[in-house]
Amino acid sequence: xxxxxxQTLNGxxxxxxxxxxxxxxxxxxxxxxxxxxxxxxxxxxxxYVGLAVMRASGSFVLAxxxxxxxxxxxxxxxxxxxxxxxxxxxxxxxxLTFGFLFIFADLALWVWGGNPQTxxxxxxxxxxxxxxxxxxxxxxxxxxxxxxxxxxxLWWFQDRTRVGAMLRAGVDDEEIARALGINVSLLFSLVFAxxxxxxxxxxxxAGPIMGVYPGADxxxxxxxxxxxxxxxxxxxxxxxxGGLLVGLLDNFGKVFFPEFALFTIFLPMALILAVxxxxxxxRE
Amino acid sequence: xxxxxxxxxHTYYGDSYILQGVSLELKPGTVVALLGRNGVGxxxxxxSIMGLTPAARGRILFKGADITRMPxxxxxxxGIGLVPQGRRVFRSLTVGEHLQVTARGTGGxxxxxxxNLFPNLGSRMRSPGGKLSGGEQQMLAAARALVGNPDLxxxxxxxxxxxxxxVRDLGQAIASLKAAGTSILLVEQQLAFALRHAxxxxxxxxxxIVHRCTxxxxxxxxxxxxxxxxx
Lengths: 284, 231
Known about the structure:
The structure holds two protein chains of two kinds. By secondary structure, chain A is mostly helical. In chain A, about 75% of the residues lie in helices and about 5% in strands. Chain A has helices at about 1-30, 40-55, 60-80, 90-110, 140-160, 160-170, 175-180, 185-210, 215-230, 235-255, 265-275; strands spanning about 130, 135. In chain A, strands 1-2 form a two-stranded antiparallel ribbon. The model of chain A has no long low-confidence stretch (mean pLDDT about 95). Chain B is built from ten helices and ten strands. Chain B is globular. In chain B, helix 3 packs parallel to helix 6. A six-stranded mixed β-sheet of chain B has the order 6-7-8-3-9-10, with helices on both faces. Chain B has helices at about 40-50, 70-80, 95-100, 110-115, 120, 135-145, 165-180, 190-195, 215-220, 220-230; strands at about 5-15, 15-25, 30-35, 55-60, 65, 80-85, 150-155, 185, 200-205, 210-215. The N and C termini of chain B lie far apart (about 35 Å).
């Protein structure tokens, strides 16, 4: 019994990290039709910056904020000065993000070295929490709570604010949104900032349990794409449901069939694609 | 001063040379109809005015200011409202949200006045754009342009695909807009509808303006009608 509860919670907490990653991936594609291959790098760089800030200041909160904010700035710079020049030109944009993926990977290797590093858990969250008869790591519960809070905030922003409605208008019909006076270019930067921020937040949050290491960028990018393919590109609900599904599949896959771990993710993905080519919550 | 001056505009769409020197004037408070067969460049002209397909040569002046190469959203905010061909309402936005995201400026187009003009929309405030009927979508496309309080409204084939009853409602809306002093560039396929509402008619053929007259003159001119409009 405890085994199932623990593994389920493990899957959900990993799923929340994937949701943070996939939310931005999905939003960016939905609005700008850019497949952002640099998204995994945001996650990794968030982890490294968070780690550096944590070591320098000892403050986990500061590490979370600084890591996410620094990477958000990076995302905006990428969008403003590079991707914007190739609006709606899929191939050049994808190649650009592919190039940034390698540049950031090498820069990280150069600055932080090749050894995996682990962030210290903040003391307040280092222990275990009793859930009935179950003792479960508090930090993982914190990740789940953080994911829920972010999901609620994103939902509120998208569905209940004027800027959120403008964003949806841009996703529905970018040209007409412009023609009605909406500054869609500003929304592009906003979405890139948000997407990079959330991915980096996931990277910092993952620091204490999964560590920060070269190659994390590729790893989570792959999983992030599986999440948005299952959930449907452009849908936040899809990113959440897809994230949780992939988190659980990945976790139970590794527990039961460690030698076929990726198989347990890609087989369900193929099945879902066969039944719903646009993903669970995708359009058209 | 004119509301809109289009001065020898040339526009390409990819490699195709679509607008081959279009000139047109629209005076404040008037309704100008732009007629012509399919594919002569009417919609491209609308897109050039909005900066969606910018003109390669020539100038477009709006209230005396050059908007030829302005970004689209700035052109809209300068005071041009677009009712696009095919309506293109935002399918995930409710009617209320449509009217919220484009609301701007103070020209008297309040929500109450909009609902007065398009009563059908009032009862559908919470419905997503994608769930509306064709007629309701057309009313919404007009309403969301109006809440931006434009001085000039571009309407690209607003009657396309509408049932006769809806066309009549739309005609009433245009008449009250005109009475309120809004300038309108009306691109139309339905000759009778255009003639009923326009003060002046321009006819396009193969990327050029080929004829300019009053509605009464065009009604009487069977040759022009059959030559350029196929009626």
